[in-house]
Amino acid sequence: MPEKLLFEKRGRVALLSFNRPERNNAITPGMREHYFDLLEECRDDPSVRSVVLTGIGKSFSVGADVQSLKSSGQHTIDRIRQHGRPVHYPLSIPKPIVCAINGGCAGVSLVHALCCDVRFAAAGAKMTTAFARRGLIAEYGISWLLPRLIGQSKALDLLLSARIVTAEEAKQIGLVNAVFPKEELLDKAIEYASDLAENCSPASMAVVKRQVYADYAATVDEAAAAALEEMVGSFRRPDVKEGAASFIERRKAEFPPYPAPSA
Questions:
Q1: What is the C-alpha radius of gyration for the chain, rounded to an integer number of angstroms?
Q2: Are 248 and 241 in contact (CB under 8 A)?
Q3: Across residues 114-120, what is the average pLDDT?
Q4: Which CB contacts under 8 angstroms, 24+ apart, belong to 204-208?
Q5: Strand 165-166 relative to strand 126-128: parallel, antiparallel, unpaired?
Q6: CA–CA gap between residue 213 and residue 192 (Å, rounded)
Q7: Which residues does 240 contact at the CB level (< 8 Å), separation at least 6?
Q8: Do strands 178-180 and 13-18 pair parallel, antiparallel, or not at all (unpaired)?
Q9: Which residue of 32, 133, 137, 147 is surrounded by the most CB atoms within 10 Å?
Q10: Cβ–Cβ under 8 Å, residues 239 and 204
Q11: Which SS3 state, helix, strand or coil, does residue 239 take?
């Protein structure tokens, strides 16, 4: 169905692709729910160690389907207020998510990209917050995410003006981690995600991801104290022993999966 995502495995990497190219991957409620369902599958599958998110066609995703904005009545308001998994839900997934922004990325789709842990973009790809030019506000927690990624002043510029930012400027201000030619983008994202999957402890990555997002609201003393407890916990897992042994023996580490397979 057009509102669904494509799902495939590339070794230990799960590749999720917005698959509505005839609408530039404009996101419907069903599409968002399917994305989150697939993330939960990846979370619970020990064979998946990292995730890549991208779009099919010329766009990553141009945001919410504008057809749903034409009638901004009570039905739309009720849908917005419905309880369920929030747009920032991917921050809670204990596996790294790499976003490959292959083309246009706007509005709520930019929020989805920011809720990934690492972002790569295709050269020339255009991004915009879009909200202020649609009579909307800084939606779905982007007012929390964006200043932490690029700083308050730059975030206000992008939110107030809703101007278009190219991939190259996005790299310069820290919105994306790297820019690649479009034909190389997906391979580079999968290569990076595969390196995480093959060489980093899944348990360690889960803890690190939790630490980084939790410590946004913590003082340095609180973060250091929490890290101490996490460190003690890490020494109770086999990963530290395997990491040390593989270094000494000059071999590839073989870390156990996360979560551990059911007996």
A1: 19
A2: no
A3: 97
A4: 204/234, 204/239, 205/94, 205/95, 205/96, 205/258, 206/94, 206/95, 206/258, 207/233, 207/234
A5: antiparallel
A6: 21
A7: 234
A8: unpaired
A9: 32
A10: yes
A11: helix
Read off the pTM: 0.88
What value does the mean pLDDT of the chain take?
88
pLDDT, tens digit (0-9, with 9 covering 90-100), for 229-259: 776 777 777 777 777 777 787 878 788 888 8
Specify the pairing of strand 126-128 against strand 118-122.
unpaired
Token pair for 111? 């929020």
C-alpha torsion sign, points 206, 199, 99, 16: negative
Residues constituting the chain: 263
Please tell me the distance from the alpha carbon of residue 116 to that of residue 52, in angstroms, as a whole number. 9
Tokens 């999966």 sit on residue? 257
- Coil, helix or strand at residue 118: strand
Q: Over the range 58-75, which residues count as b (16 or more CB within 10 Å of their CB) and which as e?
A: ebbbbbbbeeeeeeeeee
DSSP character string of 50-95? EEEEEESSSEEE-SB-GGGGS--SHHHHHHHH--S--TTGGGG-SS
Contacts 24+ apart (CB under 8 A), 229-237: 233/207, 234/203, 234/204, 234/207, 237/203
- HSE-CB at 152 with a 13 A cutoff on CA atoms is 0
Which token pair is 215? 């410590």
Dihedral sign (CA 90, 95, 96, 99): negative
At CA 66, angle to CA 160 and CA 165, rounded to 5? 40
Phi, psi values for residue 121, rounded to 5°: -135, 150
